[in-house]
C-alpha cells in the first residue's frame, strides 16, 4: 500500500495542471458550501441579536413573583439565567398631551437588567444609583414633554386605584380615565442621566398607561451579588425574566406550565396553532390560567430564532432554501470533479493495466484513486473553507452597505463551528461521491483492455457518417472535427452539460432580476405622489389648516388633503354591465346595496380637480367618478381579465340617497329607521348587507351630483375599485343644512389622508416630522408618513441584494464549470497530440490545423447554446406564466441582452481554451510526439 500511495503522489506531481484544476474545483465547491453555512449562521445570529435588543434577552417573563420565591427560579435546572425588575409605581405627568398615557411608570433594576433588558440607550448613560433615572424618547415625541439629560425631576410615585372595582390596577392595564386615582404616593427626586428608545412589548405593553422610567435598585443588585437574602422581603413582588437552557427550550411549554402550575397538555395545546382545542378544553384552560401562579409573557420570536430543533416556521424557509442551494452545489460539484477523476483514469489506463498485470488487486487500485481524492481534498478543503469564510465576510459588508437605511438591523458576521464542520463534511461527501465511480471503473480495467485502450472510442461506423455539407464548406478539417466529437461523446458531453448549466442559470437569474425591477416599477407606476400621510385623531380635523401645514413646507410642488367617510346606497342605479357584474358577485341578488366613499377635499385641490374634470358649479354638490377597472372572470380562457366599465346611470343634477349609522342615543327624525345593534362585516367589493345597514340607528342624506367624470384627483390613481364621490368642505356641511339633525357623524369617524408631490421626498418627510413633533398644535394627531420614493428605493435595494447573492452563485457555479471545461478540453487536446502530430506529418498545414480546432470550438458552442438558450427561455416563460397565474400582469419579453452576452461569452471561452491548447501543441516535436506511447 505504501508503494501505491507513493505512485499516486508522484502522478499528482507529474500532472500538475490537472491536479491544480481539480484542486480549484474542490476549493470552489468547499468555498460555496462554507459561505452558504456561514451566511445562514450570520443571519440567524443577527436576528437573535436584533430580537434581544428589541424585545430583551429572555425567553419567558413571570410577573407578580414574591421575593421569597425568587430562589425557585435561581435554582431551577431548566433556567439558565434570570434578571429581575421591581415596579416602584406610577406618577402623574403634568402637561402630557397623550390622554391615554398620563403616567410615568417607574421601574427599578440592576446591572443585569440594564444589560439584558430591551433598554436601547440613545443618549447619556444608564442609572448607577437609586437617585438616577433613564427616560424613554417617546415621552417627548408622543407625550410632548421635553426633559433633557441632566434635568432633575420630582415624581409622586404611587399605586393606581380603580374606584369602581375598589382594587389596584396592574401595570400593563390601559388608562381608566375618571375611574382611577393614585394612592399611597411617595415623593421621589431623580436626576435624568440617559434617554432610551421605548422598551419592547415584553417590558412596556402598547396599551400601558405609563411611560417606562428606569432607575437602579441596590436591593436587586445585593441579591444578585449574594450579599442579601431574598427571604427578608417576602411581601415585595418582582418581575422575573428567565432564559431557558437549550434542552428546556425543546420542551418550553412543559417547563413553563410546571412553573406556573397549569395542566401541561392543555398549555402545550394552546400554544400549538396546528391543533384545535375543543370548547371544553378552552374553558378549562382559561380557568387554569386565571388561577395560575404567575402571569407570563413569552418572547416567542427569540425562542423561534434560537430553537433550531424542532425548526420553527420563522427559519424553516431559510433552511429549506439553504438546503436546496447546497444540493445544487453538491450535484454540480460532483459532476465536475468526477469528470476530473475520469480524465485521470483515462490518462493512466495503461498504468492501471500494468499494475494489475504484476499483481495489484482491485481493492488496491480502488484505494489508489481514493487516496488521490483524499490528497486533493487535504489541500482543497482547508483553502476552500477559509475562502468561503472570507467571501462571507465581504458579502456581509456588501449587504450592510446596500441595505443601510431600510433594513431594521445590521447583518453581523458570525462563524459557527458546527456549521463549518457541516460544510467540511458535505465537501468530503462531494469528493467521495466524485471519486467512487472512477475508482470502480479503474478497478475493472484488465491488462488486455489497458494495452488496447479502445474502450473510450468504441462506436459503430454508421454513427461516424458525416453530413456532406460539412465536407463541402469546411473541408477535411471540418470532417475530422465532426468525427472526433462523435467519437468522444462522453468527454464532450461533460463540456456541453457544463455550458448548458451555466447558460440556463445566467439567463434565468437575469430574467428574474429584470422582471423583479419591472414589477417594482409597475407597482409604483400608478402612484403620482411621493409622500402619503394618514392621520388619526379622536377629534375632527380642519383640513384647511392641514393644507397650510403641508403647502408651507419647502419643496411641496402639489398636495391634496382629504377627509373620507363611508356611506351606503340602497339599490343604486347601476349600468347594465356593472349590474350584471355585481349580480355575479352577489349570487344574482337584485337588492344589492353599494358602499360609497365620500372624500372631502381642501378647497384648492377640489377647485383644481373640478377644473380638470370639466365640471362647472362643482360647489353645488359632489363629483362622481363613474369609471373603474375590474378583474372579470373569462369563462373561455378560464382566467381573470381586466375590464373597464361605467358604473352608474347618474348624471349631473341627480340625487343619491346615502345612508349612515348612528350608534349613540341621538333622537330620530323623519329619515331615521330603528334597527338592531348587531355588528356585521363587509367584503372587499363594497357590498353592504342588511345587518350592516340596520345596525344601530340608520339615517340618510341626499347628495346632489354636480358632475360625472372618469378622472380622479391627483394622488388617487391607485385607489382601487371603490365608488368615489368628491366634495368640498362647504358642500359636505350643506348636507345637514336643513337643521333637522346636524352632522351626526361622530368625531374620529373620518379617514384623514394627504398626498404630496415633493421635490425631495426625504427632506420633505424630515421637515414634516420635525414640525409636527415640535408644534403642540399637532400633539393630539398621529401622523403616519409613507415615503413612496424611499419605499421604491428599498424594494430595488432588496432585489439588488438578492441579485448580489444570485449573481455570486452564478459566478462560482460558472467557475466550477469553467474549470471542468478547461480540464476536459485541454486534457483532451493533450491526449490527441499523437493524432494531431500524425495529421501534420502527412501534410496538414498550420492553417488547416487551426481551422479544424476552431470548428470543434464552434460545434461544441453551438450544441451547448442550442440546448441552453431555448431551455433558459422556456424556464423564463414558465416563471412569467406562474407569476401571472398568481395575479400578476407581466408581459413576457425574452432577456435579449442576457442571451446575447451568454452566446458571446461561451464562444469566446471555448475558443480561448482551444486556442491556448493548440498553441502549446504546435511547439511539440512531431516525431517525438508520435513515438510517445503514454498518450
Automatic annotation (TrEMBL):
Q: Which InterPro entries match?
A: ABC3_permease_C, MacB_PCD, Macrolide_Exporter_MacB
Q: Which UniProt keywords apply?
A: Cell membrane, Membrane, Transmembrane, Transmembrane helix
**GO terms, molecular function:** transmembrane transporter activity
Residue ranges annotated as compositionally biased, kind Acidic residues, are 667-681
Q: Which domain of life is it from?
A: Bacteria
ABC3 transporter permease C-terminal domain residues are 324-447, 809-925
User: Major location, coarse class?
Assistant: membrane
Q: Where is the MacB-like periplasmic core domain?
A: 19-217
- State the residue spans of region: Disordered: 667-688
Q: Which family does it belong to?
A: Belongs to the ABC-4 integral membrane protein family.
User: What is the name attached to this protein's record?
Assistant: Peptide ABC transporter permease
> Which species expresses this protein natively?
Agathobacter rectalis
Q: What is the lineage of its organism?
A: Bacteria, Bacillati, Bacillota, Clostridia, Lachnospirales
Amino acid at each position: 500500500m505504501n508503494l501505491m500511495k507513493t505512485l499516486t503522489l508522484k502522478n499528482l506531481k507529474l500532472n500538475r495542471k490537472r491536479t491544480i484544476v481539480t484542486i480549484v474545483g474542490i476549493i470552489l465547491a468547499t468555498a460555496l458550501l462554507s459561505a452558504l453555512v456561514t451566511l445562514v449562521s450570520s443571519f440567524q445570529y443577527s436576528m437573535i441579536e436584533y430580537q434581544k435588543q428589541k424585545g430583551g434577552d429572555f425567553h419567558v417573563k413571570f410577573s407578580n413573583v414574591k421575593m421569597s420565591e425568587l430562589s425557585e427560579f435561581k435554582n431551577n435546572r431548566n433556567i439558565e439565567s434570570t434578571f429581575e425588575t421591581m415596579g416602584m409605581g406610577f406618577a402623574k405627568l403634568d402637561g402630557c398631551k397623550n390622554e391615554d398615557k398620563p403616567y410615568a411608570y417607574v421601574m427599578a433594576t440592576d446591572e443585569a437588567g440594564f444589560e439584558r433588558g430591551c433598554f436601547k440607550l440613545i443618549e447619556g448613560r444608564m442609572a448607577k444609583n437609586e437617585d438616577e433615572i433613564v427616560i424613554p424618547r417617546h415621552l417627548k415625541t408622543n407625550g410632548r414633554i421635553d426633559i433633557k439629560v441632566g434635568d432633575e425631576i420630582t415624581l409622586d410615585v404611587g399605586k393606581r386605584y380603580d374606584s369602581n372595582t375598589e382594587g389596584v390596577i396592574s401595570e400593563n392595564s390601559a388608562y381608566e380615565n375618571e375611574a382611577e386615582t393614585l394612592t399611597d404616593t411617595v415623593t421621589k427626586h431623580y436626576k435624568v442621566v440617559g434617554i432610551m428608545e421605548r422598551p419592547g412589548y415584553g417590558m412596556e405593553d402598547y396599551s400601558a398607561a405609563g411611560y417606562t422610567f428606569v432607575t437602579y435598585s441596590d436591593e436587586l443588585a445585593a441579591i444578585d451579588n449574594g450579599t442579601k437574602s431574598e427571604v427578608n422581603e417576602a411581601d415585595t413582588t418582582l418581575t422575573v425574566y428567565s432564559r431557558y437552557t437549550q434542552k428546556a427550550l425543546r420542551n418550553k411549554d412543559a417547563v413553563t406550565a410546571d412553573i406556573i402550575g397549569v395542566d401541561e397538555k392543555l398549555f402545550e395545546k394552546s400554544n400549538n396553532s396546528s391543533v384545535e382545542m375543543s370548547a371544553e378544553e378552552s374553558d378549562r384552560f382559561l380557568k387554569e390560567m386565571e388561577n395560575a401562579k404567575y402571569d407570563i409573557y413569552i418572547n416567542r420570536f427569540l425562542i423561534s430564532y434560537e430553537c433550531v430543533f424542532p425548526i420553527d416556521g420563522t427559519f424553516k424557509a431559510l433552511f429549506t432554501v439553504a438546503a436546496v442551494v447546497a444540493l445544487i452545489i453538491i450535484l454540480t460539484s460532483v459532476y465536475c470533479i468526477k469528470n476530473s477523476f475520469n480524465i485521470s483514469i483515462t490518462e493512466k489506463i495503461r498504468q492501471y493495466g500494468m499494475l494489475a498485470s504484476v499483481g495489484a488487486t482491485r481493492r488496491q487500485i480502488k484505494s489508489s484513486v481514493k487516496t488521490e481524492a483524499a490528497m486533493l481534498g487535504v489541500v482543497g478543503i482547508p483553502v476552500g473553507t477559509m475562502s468561503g469564510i472570507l467571501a462571507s465576510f465581504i458579502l456581509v459588508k456588501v449587504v450592510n452597505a446596500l441595505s443601510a437605511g431600510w433594513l431594521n438591523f445590521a447583518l453581523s458576521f458570525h462563524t459557527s463551528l458546527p456549521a463549518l464542520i457541516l460544510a467540511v463534511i458535505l465537501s468530503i461527501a462531494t469528493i467521495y461521491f466524485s471519486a467512487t465511480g472512477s475508482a470502480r471503473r479503474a478497478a475493472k480495467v484488465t491488462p488486455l483492455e489497458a494495452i488496447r485502450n479502445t474502450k473510450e472510442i468504441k462506436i459503430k461506423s454508421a454513427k461516424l457518417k458525416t453530413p456532406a455539407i460539412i465536407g463541402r464548406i469546411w473541408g477535411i478539417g471540418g470532417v475530422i472535427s465532426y468525427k472526433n466529437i462523435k467519437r468522444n461523446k462522453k468527454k464532450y458531453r461533460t463540456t456541453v452539460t457544463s455550458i448548458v448549466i451555466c447558460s440556463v442559470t445566467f439567463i434565468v437569474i437575469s430574467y428574474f432580476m429584470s422582471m423583479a425591477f419591472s414589477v417594482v416599477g409597475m407597482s409604483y407606476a400608478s402612484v403620482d405622489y411621493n409622500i402619503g400621510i394618514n392621520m388619526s385623531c379622536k377629534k375632527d380635523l380642519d383640513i384647511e389648516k392641514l393644507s397650510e401645514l403641508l403647502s408651507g413646507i419647502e419643496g411641496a410642488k402639489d398636495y391634496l388633503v382629504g377627509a373620507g367617510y363611508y356611506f351606503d346606497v340602497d339599490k343604486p342605479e347601476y349600468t347594465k354591465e356593472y349590474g350584471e357584474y355585481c349580480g355575479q358577485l352577489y349570487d344574482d341578488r337584485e337588492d344589492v346595496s353599494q358602499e360609497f366613499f365620500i372624500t372631502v377635499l381642501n378647497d384648492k385641490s377640489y377647485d383644481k380637480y373640478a377644473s380638470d374634470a370639466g365640471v362647472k358649479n362643482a360647489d353645488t354638490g359632489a363629483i362622481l367618478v363613474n369609471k373603474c377597472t375590474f378583474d372579470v372572470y373569462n369563462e373561455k380562457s378560464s382566467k381573470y381579465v381586466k375590464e373597464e366599465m361605467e358604473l352608474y346611470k347618474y348624471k349631473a343634477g341627480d340625487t343619491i340617497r346615502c345612508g349612515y349609522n348612528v350608534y349613540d342615543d341621538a333622537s330620530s327624525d323623519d329619515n331615521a329607521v330603528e334597527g338592531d345593534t348587531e355588528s356585521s362585516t363587509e367584503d372587499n367589493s363594497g357590498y353592504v348587507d342588511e345587518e350592516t345597514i340596520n345596525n344601530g340607528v340608520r339615517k340618510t342624506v341626499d347628495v346632489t351630483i354636480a358632475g360625472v367624470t372618469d378622472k380622479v384627483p391627483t394622488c388617487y390613481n391607485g385607489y382601487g375599485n371603490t365608488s368615489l364621490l368628491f366634495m368640498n368642505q362647504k358642500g359636505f356641511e350643506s348636507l345637514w343644512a336643513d337643521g333637522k339633525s346636524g352632522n351626526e357623524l361622530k368625531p374620529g369617524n373620518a379617514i384623514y389622508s394627504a398626498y404630496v408631490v415633493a421635490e425631495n421626498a426625504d427632506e420633505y418627510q424630515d421637515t414634516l416630522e420635525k414640525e409636527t413633533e415640535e408644534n403642540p398644535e399637532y400633539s393630539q394627531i398621529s401622523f403616519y408618513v409613507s415615503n413612496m420614493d424611499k419605499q421604491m428605493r428599498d424594494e430595488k435595494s432588496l432585489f439588488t441584494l438578492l441579485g448580489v447573492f444570485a449573481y455570486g452563485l452564478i459566478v462560482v457555479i460558472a467557475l466550477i464549470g469553467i474549470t471542468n471545461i478547461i480540464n476536459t478540453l485541454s486534457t483532451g487536446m493533450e491526449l490527441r497530440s499523437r493524432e494531431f502530430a500524425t495529421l501534420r506529418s502527412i501534410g496538414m498545414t498550420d492553417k488547416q490545423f487551426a481551422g479544424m480546432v476552431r470548428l470543434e470550438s464552434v460545434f461544441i458552442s453551438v450544441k451547448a447554446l442550442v440546448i441552453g438558450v431555448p431551455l433558459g427561455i422556456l424556464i423564463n416563460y414558465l416563471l412569467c406564466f406562474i407569476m401571472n397565474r398568481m395575479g400578476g400582469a407581466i408581459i413576457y419579453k425574452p432577456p435579449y441582452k442576457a442571451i446575447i452576452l451568454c452566446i458571446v461569452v461561451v464562444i469566446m471561452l471555448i475558443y480561448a481554451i482551444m486556442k491556448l491548447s493548440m498553441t502549446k501543441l504546435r511547439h511539440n516535436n512531431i516525431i517525438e510526439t508520435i513515438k510517445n506511447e503514454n498518450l
